[in-house]
Amino acid sequence: MDETKPRRLRFGRTSRIKQGRDFGRIKQDGERVASGCLIANWRRLLDGPSRLGVISSKKIGGAVARNRARRLLRESFRLHQHELAQAVDLVLVARPSIAGKPFASVERDFLTMLRKAGLLSPGK
Question: For the residues 12-39, what does the mean pLDDT come to?
């Protein structure tokens, strides 16, 4: 019987973009695509792990709505980070339409964005 261990789906400190200069560099030098309730800016990396940054403005709603939007986007990334064709620095900007959406809908928009951008591995 084949006992392969499942991949660990983690989203730790090394997977986060926190510096303002990194957000600016990705926006300036990277590529951009919009899909559904989110906008994605990304920059391909030569090595290292993929990283994620999330932006949510007050247009989405109060603090509770903004935090929920960020959690939904981070969870979508966490579940699908191993399906990326190569390592990327990815910044997701939540649009106001994300407010009140269920996770399945946000995840569908996230996967659509990855396909449009050509960031998914072949066969995913």
Answer: 90
